[in-house]
Design brief:
By secondary structure, this protein is an alpha/beta fold. The protein contains seven helices and eight strands; from the N terminus they run E-H-E-E-H-E-H-H-E-H-E-H-E-E-H.
């Protein structure tokens, strides 16, 4: 029996830039180094991720660090980027992180969304990000009916996590609710547009508004990462 495929674990720029730092309570634009957070994320959480699967930083994200590290006008961002680059390069040499990408790749968030779609039916994936908008889009991909076991595809999972102030990896709150609200907004906008067209039409036609189908999460094949 073949061994199960290791999950792909992607970490984006914004998460790595807070992996050892927290915002200054008196100035949100300034980040303060936290040894405890550094030890928790890089010493514990990252070690667990590296054992669990293949940790990947898209080349577009890596290139952002290189660009930020050269910024003279923002020394705080430059210093954090240089610190992260040293850590990443160390773990790349040790084989614990892979830098993967192509010069023709689109911007960083688009890369993450494209790989989520590409590997949705091939293996489990995890995404570490601080970006709520990106997390919401990734959550939507989790519920794509055309990629679900309803059509015979393997039921692989996508986990979405962020780095908390403590350095621990935590799930986002309210993603499914936000997704339902987004679907409702789209449905209402479509209904309003339809009504506007009807009012401008010379012929009166009655239409029955279809109810928005609810997205149901597929049954988990296995819980490879505690929720």
């Amino acid at each position: 029996m073949p061994e199960p495929k290791k999950p792909y674990i992607f970490i984006d720029t914004c998460s790595l830039l807070v992996s050892c730092w927290n915002p200054d309570p008196d100035d949100k634009d300034v980040y303060v180094y936290s040894k405890d957070k550094d030890c928790m994320f890089w010493g514990h959480e990252f070690a667990s991720l590296a054992k669990m699967g293949d940790v990947i930083i898209p080349k577009r994200n890596y290139d952002e660090f290189v660009k930020h590290a050269r910024k003279q006008e923002n020394q705080d961002l430059a210093n954090r980027s240089k610190h992260v680059l040293k850590l990443v390069e160390k773990y790349v040499q040790e084989g614990l992180i892979q830098i993967v990408g192509d010069p023709n790749d689109p911007f960083a968030d688009a890369v993450l969304l494209s790989v989520a779609l590409r590997f949705k039916t091939q293996r489990d994936q995890a995404f570490i990000t601080q970006d709520y908008g990106l997390a919401e889009d990734l959550e939507a991909i989790c519920h794509f009916r055309s990629l679900s076991d309803h059509y015979g595809f393997p039921n692989y999972e996508i986990k979405i996590r962020k780095i908390a102030k403590t350095g621990e990896l935590k799930p986002f709150k309210g993603l499914r609710k936000a997704l339902r609200e987004r679907h409702q907004d789209v449905s209402e906008a479509a209904a309003a547009n339809m009504a506007n067209k009807d009012s401008n039409s010379s012929k009166k036609r009655s239409r029955k508004k279809d109810a928005q189908p609810k997205t149901k999460p597929a049954k988990a094949r296995k819980n490879w990462w505690d929720a």
